[in-house]
Specification:
Blueprint: E1 2-8, H1 12-15, H2 28-40, E2 45-50, H3 59-63, E3 87-91, H4 102-108, E4 111-119, H5 121-134, E5 138-147, H6 151-166, E6 169-171, H7 173-186
Parallel strand pairs: 1-2, 1-4, 2-3, 4-5, 5-6
The chain binds zinc ion.
């Protein structure tokens, strides 16, 4: 079994656009370093991307229009553009699992452990973690690679919630990169 990196909602609308998350720019370098490390180790990098249909999706009634399919706002930011072997899963609700093929993809890739990064800690990361827990995946939340609309305090509360309620580990990007590197050295 293996580990996959999930990069959640690092889209133009959430980083610099109409639903900007203030802490999101700070987590870009850590996500970039993790993605490079996972690719180098041959581990899956999976982008989970909010993609809505205007006038259709119920979620838009609550939040207003954002991440509309086909617009620049729904694209992954240039700094983290998906590479050739990466996967992109589009979602229309908070959870990356809800009515998407993420679970099928993870099973086919023999993934049992998810490393969660991106935004928002208290919305899409948290709902994705809930669905991952319900399905039996091990969860790692990367403290310095998630951010939340409700600031640093909200971010910490969200990380604690996932730890208490879903049994997630929390660590930082540097530790994961180090541990993947040493696994690779042990099993060349
Ligand atoms: Zn949305």
């Amino acid at each position: 079994m293996t580990t996959a990196l999930l990069v959640i909602d690092m889209l133009n609308d959430f980083i610099s656009g109409k639903m900007k998350c203030d802490g999101a720019a700070d987590i870009i370098p850590q996500i970039r370093a993790l993605a490079e490390c996972f690719r180098k180790e041959g581990l899956p990098v999976i982008y989970i991307c909010d993609t809505h249909y205007p006038g259709v999706d119920k979620e838009l009634e609550l939040w207003g229009e954002h991440a509309i399919a086909g617009t620049k706002g729904a694209e992954v930011i240039d700094e983290l553009k998906p590479q050739e072997k990466d996967f992109v899963v589009r979602k229309r609700r908070y959870s990356g699992f809800f009515q998407t093929d993420l679970d099928l993809l993870l099973r086919e890739l023999k993934v049992d452990r998810l490393v969660l990064t991106g935004i928002d800690t208290n919305i899409c990361v948290r709902h994705t973690a809930a669905d991952a827990f319900f399905r039996g995946y091990r969860i790692v939340v990367v403290r310095n690679a998630v951010a939340s609309w409700d600031g640093a305090e909200g971010n910490e509360k969200g990380i604690s919630y996932m730890s208490e309620i879903y049994g997630s580990e929390s660590t930082n990007a540097e530790e994961i990169i180090e541990s993947l590197g040493s696994e690779a050295r042990a099993n060349p």
